[in-house]
Amino acid sequence: MGYCWRLRRRLTSCPDGEEKMIIKTYAIDGVTVLALAGQLNGRTSTAVQEQILACLRPRAHLLLDMSQVSYMSSAGLRVMLVLERRVAAMGGQIVLVGLMEEVREVMAITGFLSFFESRESIADGLATLQAKGPSSDGVIDAAN
Amino acid sequence: MQRIDVDPTHTFGHYRLRPGRPYPYGASYVPGGVNFAVFSGHATACTLVLFVKGEATPLVEIPFLPEFRVGNVFTMMVFDLDHENIEYGFRMDGPCNPREGHWFNPGKILLDPYARAISGRDVWGAAPAIADDRYPHRALLVYDDFDWEGDRPLATPIEDLIIYEMHVRGFTRHPSAGVKYPGTFAAILEKIPYLKELGVNCIELMPIFEFDEFENHNVNPITGTRLLNYWGYSSFGFFAPKAGFAATGKFGMQMDEFKNLIKELHRNGIEVFLDVVFNHTSEGSEDGPTISFRGIDNKTYYMLRPDGTYFNFSGCGNTMNCNNPVVRYMVLECLRYWVAEYHIDGFRFDLAAILGRDQQGEPLANPPLLEILAGDPILAKAKLIAEAWDAGGLYLVGSFPSYDRWAEWNGKYRDTLRRFLKGDMGQTAEMAQRLQGSPDLYAGRGAAASINFITSHDGFSLADLVSYNEKRNWANGEENRDGQNDNYSWNCGWEGATDNEEINALRRRQMKNAIAMLMVSQGVPMILMGDEMGHTKQGNNNTYCQDNELSWLDWRLLEQNADLFRFCQQFIAFRKAHPVLRNQHHFNQEKVNGHGYADLTWHGVKPWEADWSYPSRTLAFMLCGESEPGSGVWDDVIYVAMNMHWDNHTFELPRLLLGMKWRLFANTRAIPPGEIYEPGQEPLLSNQWHLLVGARSVVVLVARSPGGRR
């Protein structure tokens, strides 16, 4: 369990310093938890996508803790969908947990939520993923 | 492989640029940047104006260099933009001489005619987000991508459609709708189960192209409240869905929200038509605001008189110059965009007669725009429906240039049905035409060229059609001058609401009569939102400006008028169950088929003897046809008796083949729930020879075909 420092350094170094997306990663029982914090928008989404995808391993079970994501823009919605597609293509699974009400609503109204499994709590999310069978470690430096 | 033409070649301040591509118009993403392209046939110079979202003053203004111009298109690429946080517009310089048709003013910042999302009216009726009104409606940079999951336009045969004309906001804005985001695309999503329950398979949305609800400056003289443009027949963003109709409009996600709605409607077998308004723009007359077209190239986009003033065939101050090649191209590109990117199934063209006028306003015999739309490969499966008249007196119902593609709102159907319904004399002969898909109007084009309707957004609702003789439009602030005067309505004995049970019973029956006649007519039926539950607009027949209970659908009516809803529902199911009601072509009336009768035969109180005389108010007809042309499988025989006289009449029934029996599907005179039966559950008539049809009533019978489906 620990910070994904490599991710963090990159993501916090936005040009004007306004927009930050912090990703904390740790592993619980073979599930990689990515805790995102901040706004997922046009400024942060490219970096988030690149960094998470670069770290993915086949058959990863990913749990995205969204409880600290206060806003998701059109670009953010698209990053989420790309992530889901890539994880699925690699035989993995992805579950979102703790979506804030407004973020969840936006995802639902625009149809993006239907592509995801979403759970209230990390415990629920873990149970869902564990029911899907074994996984790889997910993100390479999850053990940092 | 990487393109070698995507690197910046110029700079402007710290912005990196490159000569752009003239096509496609508008703003589109290229690697590392955005390509801007805008046409003006008469501008001498153009500047790109970029804003940080919501800021009053521009972030930067970048002139298009002379080498950035291809023909009459100004185009350049700008790199490294924070694209989600940018709004853009143009300044155009050129002659300002209205007599010559030129209105250039470099002081104005202009909206891109090809803008695909527009900010400024993000939340319906909310004070404009941008206090600075120098550029109130701003183009956004958008994503066109969407995961349709295999969805395609449904391509339902047009004759199988039951169209439901809907206002996006009005459908769910009323508190009784019980939805999470009232008045939005998202709320329609919540109401899909209702639409399925009713049975309609197509919704036709009143204008959803971006418009300004605040453009109306009238005040309701009764309440003193400000009126809006509620209907929105006043587009300025032909490529942009109205943000204020989206729950996510404040986040600029109206595109995704609308697409998601369309995808879900398609999943449920419901097509989506758009009511498109290409006949004019919201820039109005010479006194109107300059938003886009007037400042970009007035002389190209508008139809001008020799003195430079606007023709007004739209009744809204200006007329789009639809048969100018550039404008024609824009209309085509626009419709292609809605079909390709939004999976729209069809279009209803507001005041479409204008689309057939030349640049001097004269009607064309062979209008290029209408022909291009009819023959376009991308639009090939989309339904094209014309409101075949305009406010300049051009009335083309039955003669609209169709190119074997165009259907029409059949205004004559509406008027004839209304007159017959209220008991006018001299209507039976014309009724016979309307009931069989108006072969007098659409010979050679087929019954499906006729979009049949008794009510639409223009004019009375069905409940008001049977409750008011005169329009009551005082609340519109135009001293009751607006709105149609020829309503062919009848109040059933009292003007407006009443406690008189007899009158109310008659009104209810008249509404059912109207629905029944609509549903047994050949052609494509269209229902006005709310008519299935008796929605009233209190006699206002032009609620274009009424963003309130007059227009909003009150869902409590569903309970109050449960029998009316059920009547509509069962009649829709009946229509769907019987292919003989949905012929693509007109009847030949001669063919003797397996029943021994022609496909369509006319009757009266005596079989085979329809009364076509002037005072006649009764008419009956019988349909005998196949389930599918050439299938050899016979649909049920259907007999419809209509008595719009104030006395009861006994109709002698045509004799059926041995073994066939008449069953009662509907009798509007009967007491609910016995006035209509579930299709397939119709009870046998005890008297197979004579049928009592009550005063102002419609009776529909079916007889199972021995070799038929059941």
Describe the protein.
The complex is a heterodimer of chains A (144) and B (710). Chain A is α/β, with parallel strands linked by helices. Chain A is built from five helices and six strands. Chain A has a six-stranded mixed sheet with strand order 1-2-3-4-5-6, with helices on both faces. In chain A, strand 3 (31-40), helix 2 and strand 4 (61-72) form a beta-alpha-beta unit. With 710 residues, chain B is of the alpha/beta class. Chain B is built from 14 helices and 30 strands. Chain B is elongated.
Number of strands of chain A: 6
| Overall geometric form of chain B | elongated
Main beta sheet of chain A: 6 strands, mixed
Mean pLDDT across every amino acid position of chain B = 96
Helix content of chain A: 25-40%
Strand content of chain B: 15-25%
Summarize the structure.
With 144 residues, chain A is α/β, with parallel strands linked by helices.
Q: How does the SSE layout of this entry go?
A:
The complex is a heterodimer of chains A (144) and B (710).
Chain A: E1 2-3, H1 5-11, E2 21-28, E3 31-40, H2 45-55, E4 61-72, H3 74-89, E5 93-97, H4 101-109, E6 117-119, H5 122-130
Parallel strand pairs in A: 3-4, 4-5, 5-6
Antiparallel strand pairs in A: 1-2, 2-3
Chain B: E1 10-12, E2 15-19, E3 26-30, E4 33-39, E5 45-52, E6 60-63, E7 69-70, E8 73-79, E9 86-93, E10 96-97, E11 102-103, E12 118-119, E13 138-140, E14 163-166, H1 168-172, H2 185-190, H3 192-198, E15 202-205, E16 209-210, E17 237-241, H4 254-267, E18 271-276, H5 293-301, H6 325-342, E19 346-349, H7 368-375, E20 383-386, E21 406-409, H8 411-421, H9 428-435, H10 439-442, E22 450-453, H11 462-465, H12 501-519, E23 524-528, H13 557-560, H14 562-577, E24 600-603, E25 618-623, E26 637-643, E27 649-652, E28 662-667, E29 690-693, E30 697-703
